[in-house]
Backbone:
């Protein structure tokens, strides 16, 4: 199978199991290097995009079974969009170096694992994929992505960068309510997101003019109304960005960045969890017998 054939399979099949098909280990040589772009992927009716807005449950409600399941449903949607969009990038930017496209394939494979973890766990909580409308916040950026560097600035440095914060926040929130199994899933996903952002940073750095600073270059790659605010969670954890290969100056400017939507989160709600800025790794979670 060719990279392009696999990517089209992920995008054009409407069956969820097809989108979870692992990539082969050996690839045939590409002969067609024409860009291929679509506005949205094919999906089964129950998983199609919706403009109906649904809010993720509040953190303090994660002691409730249904709230846990609905929270993971939101995250599962993000993983499915990521699988599709990295496939989209392979087809949209066929001139990208093979190492970049193979990096995208590795990210797809890890996102497929994440999606399976979310699907299984949210089913434990009585929620099935498609039970609530699915937004398409990631796919809305597609018309503005004219280069592989713009793609990685939006998907890897921004959306996945924000998930460095969110995966930590939710791991600690689930742990707060002694749901160690779900907390461990969130930490596993965090560890993979570090790798994803690192891959994006390599593409970003390879495209950056030597005369430009990282922050200035990043701002040329994103287009209003998308702003750097999208690259941060409710709480910003600088150490996660260091793990991902961002420079100290870039991290400082990202942390300081504010726009008209900054500060709309009620941080008082978060105070009860006493999150702090420490970064959890798998070794920070109790062993299964200790959690019981």
Residues:
């Amino acid at each position: 199978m060719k990279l392009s054939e696999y990517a089209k399979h992920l995008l054009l099949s409407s069956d969820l199991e097809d989108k979870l098909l692992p990539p082969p280990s050996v690839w045939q040589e590409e002969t067609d290097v024409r860009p291929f772009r679509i506005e949205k992927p094919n999906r089964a009716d129950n998983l199609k995009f919706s403009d109906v807005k649904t809010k993720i449950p509040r953190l303090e409600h994660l002691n409730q079974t249904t709230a846990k399941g609905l929270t993971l449903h939101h995250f599962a949607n993000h993983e499915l969009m990521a699988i599709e969009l990295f496939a989209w990038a392979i087809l949209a930017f066929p001139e990208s170096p093979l190492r970049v496209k193979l990096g995208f394939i590795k990210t797809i494979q890890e996102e497929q694992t994440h999606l399976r973890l979310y699907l299984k766990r949210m089913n434990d909580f009585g929620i099935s994929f498609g039970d609530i409308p699915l937004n398409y916040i990631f796919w809305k950026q597609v018309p503005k992505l004219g280069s592989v560097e713009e793609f990685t600035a939006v998907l890897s440095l921004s959306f996945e960068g924000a998930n460095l914060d969110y995966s930590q926040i939710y791991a600690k929130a689930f742990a707060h309510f002694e749901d160690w199994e779900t907390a461990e899933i969130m930490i596993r996903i965090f560890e993979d997101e570090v790798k994803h952002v690192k891959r994006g940073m390599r593409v970003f750095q390879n495209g950056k003019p030597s005369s430009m600073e990282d922050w200035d270059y990043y701002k040329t790659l994103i287009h209003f109304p998308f702003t750097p605010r999208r690259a941060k969670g409710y709480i910003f954890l600088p150490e996660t960005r260091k793990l991902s290969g961002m420079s100290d100056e870039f991290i400082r400017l990202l942390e300081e960045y504010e726009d008209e939507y900054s500060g709309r989160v009620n941080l008082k709600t978060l105070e009860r969890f006493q999150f702090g800025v420490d970064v959890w790794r798998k070794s920070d979670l109790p062993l299964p017998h200790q959690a019981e």
Summary: Residues 60-291 form one domain. The mean pLDDT is 94.
